[in-house]
Amino acid sequence: MRLKNFTAPDMPTALAQVREVLGADAVIVSQEKNAAGQIELTAAVEDADEISFNRDERVEVKPARWKYDDGRLRESLDYHGVLDIVKERILAGCRKMSVEANIRDDKELLTHCFAQMFHFQDILDCRQPVKLFMGVPGSGKSTAIAKTATQAKIQKLSACIISTDNVRAGANSQLQAFADILGTDFRFVKTPRGLYDAVEEARRKYSLVLIDTPGINPFLADEVEKVSILTEAVRADMILTMDAGKNTFEAVEIADVFAEIGARFLLPTRLDLTRRIGALLSVAACCEFGFCAASVSSSIAKGLSSVDGEALAKLVLA
Ligand SMILES: Nc1nc2c(ncn2[C@@H]2O[C@H](COP(=O)(O)OP(=O)(O)OP(=O)(O)O)[C@@H](O)[C@H]2O)c(=O)[nH]1
Ligand SMILES: [Mg+2]
After folding, report:
1. Whole-structure pTM over 0.85, yes or no?
2. Which of 143, 147, 242 to mutate to test ligand 1, by most ligand atoms within 8 A of the CB atom?
3. Is 273 a pocket residue for ligand 1 (Cβ < 6 Å)?
4. The Cα angle at residue 131 between residues 280 and 191, in degrees rounded to 5
5. What does DSSP assign to residue 200?
6. For residue range 67-119, what is the model confidence (pLDDT) as tens digits?
7. Domain 130-317 -> CATH class
8. Residue 218: CB within 6 Å of ligand 1?
């Protein structure tokens, strides 16, 4: 409450002063005439944010706004070793969706969030029939190709395998053996020009053309060059195969090099031997990779698993 004294020659003038200074809500607390015959008034007005103790007054209770508690999800993402910057992006997405769509279930939130954050495509999507697989040595390129060819066979899609791997001894005989079992055509080419010609020919005959490349060390420029001249020779969905259990920082650095030479999709391998998928989420978010499939077994017959927002959410919360 604010109190103020006023002095005026008569009552109407005093009241006009009160209204002008304290407003129309002011009340007169005391009034008297002084020795000079003037009116002395004390007036008061309540402050707007003053707390009222009036028991009769009704307090309007507004419903509290739903606030999503991201504690459990934060813990899960920490366990998986997701990069901080990616973790905060995921959590912000989940908080926003929780408030906007009134969703409280972590799995549902993550599923929607991943569906918005990442791009998912079927490995057998024939809009781009040429698929080129790249990665570090032993990352599962040839196995993923054999699995894709197997899946294509089941779907009655004709496929052809082209190998450019002249690095690892026995690499081609291994793929040739797979191709023979599946009744799939197998070619080996040594040069970018040879690859271009083989792909042009294969595109006319097959629904899918799967290209294997030599495993390279992404931190050695000479080795990167070996694959980059191949990626420049053909148009293809460029797929990076990567051991899902890699250290997150290492994985992002490696993926960054492959992204520079054209990789746009991530195909995680050895998911059966992995508990933490922070590296995959971080790579996909930082390098803007889509997911096209995942390898969850060394067995060719078991094929590849499809990946979507729900599958990733399940892995995070498992
Ligand atoms: N458990 C498990 N093993 C896998 C998986 N994918 C591949 N492997 C195994 O990993 C090893 C390497 O796989 P490859 O397909 O030969 O790898 P690569 O990238 O072609 O290797 P290089 O041609 O030498 O560069 C093999 O022993 C595969 O059986 C998987 O999803 N799970
Ligand atoms: Mg290989």
Report:
1. no
2. 143
3. yes
4. 115
5. H
6. 788 999 999 999 999 999 999 999 999 999 999 898 989 999 999 999 999 99
7. alpha beta
8. no
